[in-house]
Amino acid sequence: MVLDDKNGCSMSKILVTGGAGYIGTHTLISLHEAGYEFIVYDNLCNSSQEALKRVEKIIGEDIEFIKGDTRDKKTLQKLFQNHDIGSVIHFAGLKAVGESVQKPLEYYDNNINGTLVLLEVMKEYNCKKILFSSSATVYGDPHATPITEDFPLNTTNPYGRTKLFIEEILRDLYVSDDEFEIVILRYFNPVGAHESGMIGEDPNGIPNNLMPFISQVAVGKREYLSIFGGDYDTHDGTGVRDYIHVVDLALAHVKALDYINSRAFNIQHSTFNIGTGEGYSVLDIVKAYKKASQKEIPYKIVKRRAGDIAKCFANPNLAKEILGWKATKTIEQMCLDSWRWQSDNPNGYKK
Ligand code: NAD
Ligand code: UDP
To answer: Each residue of 132-169: pLDDT tens digit?
Structure first.
């Protein structure tokens, strides 16, 4: 138990579902640095305990970890019974767009059922603070950029729909019980890694996302990058996204927790874009990565990927105004940190 030096009261713990994953592990470090105590709950379906061991090395402390699934009500109930959980950061979920098209039922079950069970148990144990990982994918193909939080929501694949439905579920939950304090963070494109090079993104199989794919080309695991489309209406014809350093993203969670725990919390301001506000094209990223890694990144421009959009970047002003959070890391740092992780760990967490 930790004493909260502001009011001398004992401080409860944060339950971090999906805490062994890419964004989760980085967030654990930021939580630790900010003095928050946490318990990790993860079924390890897309991560490994090695990632948590590395976080333990970085923070110099053991991590309380419970292996379990968000759909497993009994295990969650036991967890809430045995620990004083004051709030939840809910990362757990499946996240691959393409896979969600192939396996929609698995995605709806894991992401939506998992969240429903978690919320039921939270309610049962009177834990009513939750921070949810949403995604810019809920904006679909935006009519303009930069995107503000009040843009229409519309998404094109089962993964995106799980995010959108969970957002709606959370809004309905609040309507039914206004003691719930809910923050929804809509992440743009998380990339990069912790500066130690000890933790980072470790995708299964062939990476779907741009940065891990480029990293594997740079390290010699893949021959070349296929750039999906060179004829978009962007400055160089390739797709433009808002890449955000995962450590900046992790800090946004700390700021959001501070906000949810403060008197300033207002449900009218509870959904935030978490991006830099800058758009970079695929070719911009290739160039920056080449500079950071000092490696050639061979590429071929191929046809557009189904479902892709030309441009997507955030207006992150609301997060700055309300949470006091702003991204600070540059595209150069994102590429350097990503390269350090990749070159130190060519096989990810596998030995
Ligand atoms: P990740 O796959 O690395 O981490 C998710 C973690 O959740 C994994 O450790 C996995 O084992 C665990 N998990 C999955 N289903 C579970 C279940 N039913 N019960 C318990 N644990 C379960 O993904 P990430 O990149 O760290 O993403 C974290 C969250 O952020 C996800 O909800 C994701 O949809 C969301 N998000 C990610 C991105 C991105 O590009 N990485 C962008 C927007 C939103
Ligand atoms: N992209 C690409 N080749 C790849 C992976 C991605 O050209 O192998 C492009 C993709 O078309 C998009 C950008 O890189 O313009 C970011 O794609 P990513 O899948 O990382 O994120 P998202 O599409 O979800 O924004």
So the answer is: 999 999 999 999 999 999 999 999 899 999 999 999 99
For residue 168, the enclosing domain spans: 13-192+244-275+314-327
The predicted model scores a pTM of 0.97
The pair of structure tokens assigned to 254 is 């700390």
Q: What dihedral do alpha carbons 101, 103, 106, 109 form, nearest 10°?
A: 40
| CA quadruple 153, 204, 79, 106: dihedral, nearest 10 | 50
Ligand 1, atom 21: closest residue by C-alpha: 42
Active site residue 108: no
Residue 145's contacts (CB-CB under 8 Å, 6 or more residues apart) are: 279, 311, 312, 313
Distance CA 161, CA 167 (A): 10
- Is 306 inside a domain boundary? no
259 domain residue, yes or no: yes
Our answer on whether the CB atom of 189 is closer than 6 Å to any ligand 2 atom is yes
> Ligand 2 centroid to 210 CA: how many Å?
5
The domain total for the chain is: 1
- Can you give the CATH number for the domain in which 113 is found? 3.40.50.720
Q: Give the Å distance between the CA of 211 and the centre of ligand 2.
A: 8
Residue found under tokens 């393409």: 98
- Each residue's pLDDT tens digit, 42-80: 999 999 999 999 999 999 999 999 999 999 999 999 999
| Pairing between β-strand 311-312 and β-strand 271-274 as defined by DSSP bridges | unpaired
